[in-house]
Predict the structure.
Amino acid sequence: MSKILFSHSYYYKLDPKQWKNKNPFPPLGTLYAAAFLRENGFEVSLFDTNLLDSPKSIQPILHRTKPKFLVIYDDGFNYLTKMCLTNMRQACFEMIKYGKNHNCTVIVCSSDSTDHYHKYLEKGADFILLGEGEITLLELLKSIDNNQTIDDLNGIVFKKNDAVQVNKKREVQQVLDEFPMPAWDLVNIEDYKSVWKRSHQEFTLNIATTRGCPYKCNWCAKPIYGNRYNAHSPEYIVKQIDFLQKEFGVNRFWMCDDIFGLKPNWVQEFNAKLKEKKLKINYYIQSRVDLLLKEDTIDCLTESGLEEVWVGAESASQKILDAMDKGTTVEQIYKATSILKSKKIKVAFFLQFGYLNENQEDITKTIAMVKELMPDNIGISVSYPLPGTKFYDKVKDDLKLKSNWTDSDDFDMMFKGTYNSVYYRKLQRFVHKEFRKSQGFQNLRQLLSEPSSISAAHIKSIAKLGYYIPTTFLDALFLKKLQHGK
């Protein structure tokens, strides 16, 4: 069958904040698609853009391999691709151009192209895959190879007679174990290991145990996998872990699901299967505070190797959580954090500022919660309008000048909120400093009470109090001025 060159449009080096972290993950969604097409008889190769500088580097690959199809298939398990950063959009446009220059049929599958297919068709893409793409891609390529009509093929957008034809969307795949394991052999894992080494963290690979999310937070778009929630079996995931351990010597994993372990008894069965195979791993996840409080979930997570959980705390204002349709309570944030800490599991908070009708009282509550609960880490954003959400519909009239960030550190307010972009950028830095200052004082108290338990990292945190104490004071004064428009 025909040659396919798979690629994707995320370049860590075009997102300076993420590149600085030195924690790159292979393009898991792309690897799933490549494995599925290879299993069905196509000759596949991968141009992995993650660690490269520029889309121009695809040109010699196209010249040498001469593929019939260039499939730019973004990793739908990476939240950064959901944000549709304009640096990556422009990179994709450039890759489309190079693909057409080499006479490829160019096919794009991504959150951004699903939401903005007109833009990609205008740049020369032949087909856009809407949503989850593996089965649609297989049917499309078979139809093209066999000169069959595509007029009724679900899940595609294309131009016909100079008009854009949008076919019916395809239902997502419900039995995920029917997909082969990702094509890990197409990735140069040693290149990833070398970058991770510079971060001074243990090398980590990404695994997705599920697709989709059933919750209805009104700011969170789901253009690829929708509001459905489908899960791989614990057996499938444990088999993949066993393979990755043996093949690449990796023992730490990022479970990159939107929500890990939602299916009843899945975590318990996963823990049992790991024990059965005598596999020892460490991993970290994203979850919800209400989900973590169910039954013996935290105990089984602890036994199976969980070391850290990122929870979407978002805010310590119940008013804001309710406005977001979050479906959780501030009380649950406090309770879940307490239980996780008692089990020696690290807790990290996703926080969100700038939601509609947020006021100074809401912001103050969130900062106070961080200082009181002292999570192990925090990630801060401002509310980001994503197409297809209720939140987007509420603010879309404000998005005439800008509707996407350039990179993940852009932090621009793209709609009219309570305060402007300058305020929220300063607030983000201020809250991080307040958090680090609180950590420093916590470590100082520990030094005085239990000096033998103090590590070099603790000493470094204490030393940085000389920076954080005066700068948080000055930042607080500046924020006061910004609040009053000065």
Q: What stands out?
A: The chain has a mean pLDDT of 95. The longest helix spans residues 421-449. The chain has 20 helices and 15 strands.
